[in-house]
Amino acid sequence: MASSRGQARARTTGSARRTYAAGTRSAAARRGNGGHRGRFSAVRLILVAILLVAGVKLVQVQWFEAGALSAAAERQRTQTIDIPAQRGSIVDRNGAKLAFSVEVRSLSVNLKAFRKNMDDFAAKNPGTKKTFDSETAAAAKYIAAKVPSQLTEQQLLDLFHKQASFTYLEHNVEPSVAADIQKHFAWVEIEKRALREYPGDNLAANIVGVANWRTDDKDVSKHNLHGLVGLEQSRDNDLAGTPGRMLVNTKNGSDNVVIPGTERDLQAAVPGSDLELTIDSDLQYEVQRQLSDYVQQSHAKGGQAVVLDAKTGEVYALANDKTFDPNDPSTFADAEAMNDRAVTTPFEPGSVNKVVTATGAIDYGVATPESTIQVPGALQVADKTVHDAWTHGTQTFTTAGIFAKSSNIGTLLLAQKIGEERYADLLKKFGLGQRTGVGLPGESAGVVPARSQWSATTFGNLPIGQGLSMTVLQMAGMYQAIANDGLRVEPRIVKAKVNPDGTTVPEPAPKQVQVVSPQTAKTVRDMMRAVAQNGKGLQKGTAPTAAVEGYQISGKTGTGQQVDPRTRAYSDHLYNITFAGILPADHPRFVVGIRLDAPDTTLPVGHSAAPLFHSIASYLTQRFQIPLSDGPSPEVPLIVQ
C-alpha cells in the first residue's frame, strides 16, 4: 500500500514538474513573441518615417524647387552668344562700292573636349582604330583639299596637336564648304563671320581704311569687324551696327561645344549703316596713278594731291603716293603707307601761300593787278636779307607780275603795306592753323605762330610761305575760297549716311567763311591767270606747263625750303614743291592742290608740280565734260621795262 502511495506521489510530482516546465516554456514563448512584435513595430515606424521624409522631399523637389532646378540644369547646358551684325558698306558718290562685307565661316575645334571624347570611346571599345590621331589626320586631309588656298594638311595637323584647349583651323571659309566639312566631322565647330572686301584693292585705301576682327579667344563677340584706320575707324559706330544675341545648347557647359541646330535668336542683330562718300572712284584712281608716277619720275620722297569741288568744297579725290592694300594684311606693317599724309602731315608750302598777300593787296586797296612797284634785288627784314629766286637789279613789276614771277621781295613789300594785323586776320579767315573738319582721322591743324609770338623776322617769312605749315588739303582750301567768290567752305569727304531702313541722313552742313568779297576773289582769280602765261622773255609766268588748251587756268607755284634734319636749318637742296590751281579760271569747277616731298629739283619734273597739274586737269575736263572757256587768258605785262 505504502509503495503504491509513493509511486502515486512520484507520478504526481513528475506531472507537476512537466506542467511547470511546460508553463515556463509557454511564458518564455509569450515573452519571445512580444519582443519580436516590438522590434517589428520599431522597424515599421522607422520605415514610415523614412518614407515620410522621402515623400516630403519629393513634394519639395517636384513642386517647390522644380523651377529652380530646371533653370539650373538649363544654365549648365545653354549659353548666350553674340550674333555679329552686318557691317555697312562704303560707296563713292556714284554708288560704286569701295568696301563691303560678305558672310563667311570660321572652323574651330575644342581640343580638350574632343581628346576626352576619343579617350572615352577608346576605353569602351578596346582595339578600335578610331582614335584622336586617326580622326584629326582624316580631317586635316579633307579640309586641306576643300580649302586649298589656305592652310596645308601639315599646318592643320600641327594645329590639331598643339598644346591648347582650343584652336581655330580656318577663317573666311565659304558657308557651303564649312557645312560640308562639319557634315563629315561633327566635332568641327562653325562660327558665322563677316569678311570685309575692298574691290579696288589700294583704291582710296588711305581714305577708306581697313576693318578686321580679332581671333585671340573664343568669345565670338570679339570677332565683330572693327575699323583699324581711316573712315573704317573714325566712323566705326555708324558702320558696325549692333550685335544680336543667340541662345545655344552645349554638349558640355564647361567646354562650350555647341550642339548644331539648337540655335535660338533672342535678339536680332541690327545691320550697320552705309557711308556715301564725295569722292569719284575713277578720278581717285587716276590721281593716285598720276601722282605715284610723277613722284617716281621726280625722285621725290613722296607726294600728295587733292581735288575739291570749287563751290561745295567736296573732296573728289585725295591721294598719297604711298598706300596699302586692305585686302593684304602683309601691307599693314608699313606705317607710312597707312598714314593719310594728305591730312595728317603739314609742311611749309613756299610761294603757294602768296595768295594771302595777293588777296589782301586787292581787298584792302593796296594795289590793283596793273599797278606797279619798284622791286629791288634784295630786301632787309630785321636781321635777315631776302632775295628772289633769280638775281636782278631794281625792276618795275606789276602786281600781277609779282605773283606770276613769284617775287619774294615784291610780295613782302605788298605785305608790309597790308600790315601785320590785317595779314594775321586773313590767315585765320583762310583757315590756316585750324583743322578743316574734313571727317578723316588724324587730321593736323598745321602751325601758324600766334600773333603775340611774332618776332621781327616773322613777317619776313609768313608772306612767302615759310615759318608756317599746312596740309595739302588746307592749301587747296585757300584756293577754293578764291574760286568760290571769296566764300570758303570747309571740305567734306562723307556725303551722307544711309540707314539700314534705307533712309538717307546727310552730313551736317559744312561751316562757311566769307574771306573776301566776290569782286576781290574774282580779281585775284583773274590776276593769277598770269602764272600760266607763256609770254616772251620776262613776260613768262612760272608755270606755263600748267596750261590746258581751251581752258583758262589760275594758280600758283611754290618752292618751300625744308629743314635739314642734320643741320636743323633751312636746306639748300631739300624743298617742298607745290602747286594749287583753279579749273577753269573763268567758270571755276575744280581746285587741285599738289605737294612733292623733296624731289630732285635738277630734273625737269622735279623743279615744278605744274606738269602734274596739267595732266590731272586734262583728265578732269574729259571725265566731267567741262565746257571750254569763253576765250584764252589775256596776256598781261609782268615786268615793265
TrEMBL record:
Localisation per UniProt entry: Membrane
Residue ranges occupied by any Penicillin-binding protein dimerisation domain in the UniProt entry: 83-251
Keyword tags: Membrane, Transmembrane, Transmembrane helix
GO cellular component, as recorded: plasma membrane
Pfam families for this protein: PBP_dimer, Transpeptidase
Membrane-crossing residue ranges in chain numbering: 40-59
Positions of region (Disordered): 1-34
Occurrences of domain Penicillin-binding protein transpeptidase (ranges): 304-616
Main subcellular location of this protein, as a coarse class: membrane
InterPro entries (UniProt xref): Beta-lactam/transpept, Beta-lactam/transpept-like, PBP_dimer, PBP_dimer_sf, PCN-bd_Tpept
UniProt key word Membrane: yes
Signal sequence region: none
GO MF term (any one): penicillin binding
GO terms classed as biological process: cell wall organization
Biased composition (Low complexity): 1-31
Family as reported in the entry's similarity comment: Belongs to the transpeptidase family.
Protein name, as recorded: Penicillin-binding protein 2
Native species: Amycolatopsis mongoliensis
